[in-house]
Amino acid sequence: MSKIGIFVGTAGGTSMKVANALIEAFEIEEDDVINMEEDFDDVEEQLLAYDVLFLGSSTWGQGDLHFSWVDPILEIEDESIDFSSKRVAFFGAGDCIKHGEHFCSAIGKLHKTFTGAGAKAIGFMPKDSYNYEFSLAEMDDKLCGLAIDEHNESEKTTQRIEQWVGILKSELGD
């Protein structure tokens, strides 16, 4: 089985809620769950240590990543770190009503950085159950990962997580 690491930048706890569901669904050890703000130190030693990465971020401001992702993203882009041997899935939190003009765009930014560094993106979600104006996470009529809105659509969270886990298990096949 592939070694899976979860890396999550969160403030309000929604992205960590998803991370906890992934821990259970994929039987991931606590040591393999990295809170970007508290536990992250090194791109090469931590991110490159895994075959599969589940990367999460809440969306802030005008579609920005959680601040804990800023330095690692700059390092990956500036130093051309190679992720071509990695499979990566993205998840995040946003608000489709108050910030519908950039709903969960943070995961779109993560997608751009990691696929730009060679990673293979997995876990695309159908967008038909979502209602928002615009998102950088939207690609080819799907979302590039799991988008959660606990503010306005909390009743859909469990079903969305279960659907995404099913997609990931099918794509990982191990």
CATH architecture classification? 3-Layer(aba) Sandwich
CATH topology (fold) name? Rossmann fold
Rg of Cα set: 15 Å
Give the fraction of residues assigned to helices.
Answer: 25-40%
Beta strands, count: 10
Order of helices and strands: EHEHEEHEHEEEEEH
Protein name: Flavodoxin
Domain Flavodoxin-like: 4-169
GO molecular function: electron transfer activity; FMN binding
Family: Belongs to the flavodoxin family.
Written description of the protein model:
By secondary structure, the protein is of the alpha/beta class. 31% of the residues lie in helices and 23% in strands. It has one domain (4-172): Flavodoxin domain (Rossmann fold), CATH 3.40.50.360. Strands 1, 2, 3, 4, 5, 6 and 10 form a 7-stranded mixed β-sheet that branches. It has a 3-stranded antiparallel β-sheet with strand order 7-9-8. The model has no long low-confidence stretch (mean pLDDT 95).
Brief overview:
This protein is an alpha/beta fold and 174 residues long. It has 5 helices and 10 strands.
